[in-house]
Write a structure and sequence with these properties.
Length: about 120
């Protein structure tokens, strides 16, 4: 069977975990500060006309500098529990290596984590 691009889009399911980072911050012009309101990702997927079956779940909306080890293990547990075999985690860049270390130390045989980082 020849599996083309459209076939892959039809069968691929991606779980997207939102954790915050600059990616989802908004600017308060009155107080000159960044803050979290809601994620921009669902609208971006809609505008991009993504044909991939995605499920978006907000785990937390925090700056990665404020992320604790407990938060990182919460991300890990969510990855372990998800049924999708492809996982994207939005995450700020400042402490991404620490979270990657937690995830890398606890591999589940059938999932792949990709990162979507704030400022890029």
């Amino acid at each position: 069977m020849d599996c083309g691009y459209s076939d892959i889009i039809t069968i691929m399911k991606v779980k997207i975990f939102l954790t915050g980072g600059t990616f989802d911050k908004e600017y308060d012009e009155i107080n000159a500060r960044l803050y979290f309101k809601e994620s921009h990702l669902p609208e971006m997927l809609k505008l991009g006309r993504s044909g991939i079956d995605t499920s978006v779940e907000t785990l937390m909306m925090i700056d990665s500098l404020d992320m604790t080890d407990q938060d990182r293990f919460s991300i890990l547990e969510s990855c372990k529990k998800t049924e999708e075999d492809r996982i994207v985690i939005t995450h700020g860049t400042d402490t991404m290596p620490q979270t990657a270390q937690v995830l890398g130390g606890h591999k589940r045989q059938n999932y792949r984590v990709n990162w979507c980082d704030g400022p890029l």
